[in-house]
Amino acid sequence: MEIILHIAFNQDGSCFCLGTNKGYLIYNISPLKKLCQREFKDGIKIIEMLKKTNILAIVGNVFDKKESEFSNTKLKIWDDLLMKKIIELEFDSEILNIKLKTDKVFLTTVNNNLYVIELPKLNFLNIFQIYENSNGLFSISSDEKILVLAFPYINSGFVKIKHYNKKINVPNINAHDTEISYLTLNPEGNLLATSSQRGTIIRIFNTLNGELIQELRRGAKKAEIHFITFDLNNKFLACSSDSGTIHIFSIYTSIKYLTEKGIIKDKSNNSNKKEETNIKGEKIEIPKNQKSFIGSIISVLKLGISYFESEWSFAQFRLPKNEDEKTIISFSQFDNSINVLTRSGILYKASFEPSLGGECDKINEINLFKENPEN
Questions:
Q1: Could you tell me if 115 and 146 lie in one domain?
Q2: pTM, to two decimals
């Protein structure tokens, strides 16, 4: 029986990878098509894809490095076309998390180290100590021209930001009063979204100065956050959790803030015409999150937030009640829809209406191991 060990979308959400106890599989999203399936003895624990290329970062699923070439302490930069390793690095402890850029690889290990390694020279640019967590959390900006790194700092609830393209020193961000459960950067790295172990609130910060911009309320009950992601156009943010509901939020407040501060440019050509545009200068409809005063006074007093209302999601997609495995999300590049991939190998596609919100419409549901995805 094939068991999924790892699921991941590539940087723009156009493909996804599955690491299994038998090897790995890579799929194209639109149209849905299996691009390759490779078998490796003992399986692949982690797989990350570099954009839409044949270059992968893989980590094996064997605990004893003496028994296998693919152990969980070895990172291999792999050429899927040639089916051979390009680079191999071995570490003293198990690798937990990996991110790729064209000229760099980032990874965390069980001993709470975060490594920034230059490719192909294998120069160790940085080694950071991160707050102890079983997932090796960190995030990088996906824009190829911009490099921003965010990770849980050595104090509980704090996040450290490092800009590699700007000479600025951002104060460590006191994001939550409990441990960070998930964090992610938007493509350009100017926004950071974080959640805590409670999983009720997602906060969005300006990465240039650490200021809290927007507070999003996932729910009132505690939940384990599985995944948080921004869409490529910086209009929406989605999160998944063990509650079984995917929440979609508008981040218009955050983008408006960045524009007013001059951090991003308003690309509207007609200065007299006041129309709202996204980060790429495209006219957008403005979805409105529902407002809530729950917890707002605490947020204002503790974090200095300049907005007095936390915001509830404007659209939701509910998974079947028996679907409680880890879930990841990508936004479609072509329409207002999301792709939801579960650790059990189910791929959902659902659409949402930006101006109305509410329940998403399920477009498709495919079991990748029981159906032919090309049909």
A1: no
A2: 0.88
